[in-house]
Known about the structure:
Layout: H1 16-35, E1 39-40, E2 46-48, H2 49-56, H3 61-66, E3 69-71, E4 77-80, H4 85-94, E5 103-112, E6 124-133, H5 139-154, E7 161-166, H6 170-186, H7 193-201, H8 215-219, H9 230-246, E8 251-252, E9 266-271, E10 280-286, H10 290-293, E11 301-307, H11 308-317, E12 329-333, H12 336-351, E13 358-360, H13 367-376, E14 381-385, H14 387-392, E15 394-399, E16 407-410, H15 414-425
Helix pairs in contact: 1-5, 1-11, 5-9
The chain binds histidyl-adenosine monophosphate.
Histidyl-adenosine monophosphate binds next to β6, β10, β11 and α11.
Amino acid sequence: MNQALQAIRGMSDLLPADSARWQAVEGAIRRTLDDYGYREIRVPIVERTELFQRSIGEVTDIVEKEMYTFDDRNGVSITLRPEATAGIVRAAMEHGLLHNQRQKLWCTGPMFRYEKPQKGRYRQFHQFDVEALGFPGPDIDAEIIVMTARIFRTLGIRHVSLQLNSLGSSEDRARYRADLTEYFRAHHDALDEDSRRRLERNPLRILDSKNPAMQAIVAGAPRLTGYLGDDSAAHFAGLRSLLDAAGVAYTVNPRLVRGLDYYGRTVFEWVTDQLGAQGAVCAGGRYDGLVAHLGGEPTPAIGFAIGLERLVELHSLAGHAAAATIPDVYLVAVGDAALLAGLRLAEDLREASPPLRVEFHCGGGGFKAQMRRADRSGAAVAVIIGDDEVQAGTAGVKPLRGDAGQASVPLAGVADAVRRALAGVA
Ligand code: HAM
């Protein structure tokens, strides 16, 4: 195929052979969120660029290097969403959902980041994103984390572990930032270009550097843990005791800083060693300052996102099967009159009580060719109509997986005959 017409690098097609696994994983997450009382919200895939700049932060990898940003035909700068939190918060504010109300919301869909594609890291990827708005915590922090643990359990995924940290309040971070700036200034010569640029505007981002050459300097930097004020420390202790009581194991990782600026206090990541370099499967935290920062009333908030490509891969590595749904019946219709009667019969079977899953043969062909297709479809029963059956007002019902022979049945009795044949197979 002409290369210019191929899919864009880092953006994948989901082929039919893989969609059953995706549906199984997405279905399990949806049901869990629903059971916990979270409701779906859908927001646009593009937003004004400024929303992401203000929410995620100007001096972050995402905003500086990874956004798909372009002007629309009116010259307005818009961006393909790199994440869902900013859009959900915008929508909640715009529709008054935060006015004397609390919200437990989820959203799913594609996100876009111009990262270097590799296994587990794509330019179009998919998230399940969850946000709880209006809850000061730490009870909601615990509930959210317990819920993520249940999602992994429900999917039978075991090789994940939870890392936890507190980034403190904005006042805590301001004190920390002053000391951190001093520390990095003292190591100015060893900083890479990105870090030097970030030193004055956003020194916390240096801790997040992906450059291996920076790791030693980062490791020697002061730790935020020592700067937590009483409120932040109490919040963190409260969350930890709730998680202990709920039996959710975690490791406190003082180096966990997250790559987006809106976080404060609780942050967490579920990581795995099964996916090579891209170990974070689910990540999030508290962002109590964001709503006010975007011009709304101060509103405490926490959320997380699961990376679906990574979760689906873990589900597959765990050896779980995810078979596509197969039809109950493959309807074979040979001849023009049979085609008319067959199409009608297929609809009747789909409306039977309980309904049957029917794949209707399209594309013509003789009896043998159609029966080969019936066999390949995986259906347990073929319903066969030819000119003779049309004349007689009957259909043939033939089990495809066993030794039972074909029976000739009046059209009104086909659904029952199919069910008896299915029961024989089962
Ligand atoms: P994030 O850590 O940027 O957080 O992304 C969350 C998850 O999305 C990651 O842990 C990873 O599984 C997946 N992910 C991120 N980038 C890629 C990529 N290029 N390819 C494949 N998967 C990827 C957020 O997006 C926050 N909005 C989460 C949040 C919600 N915080 C509060 N509420």
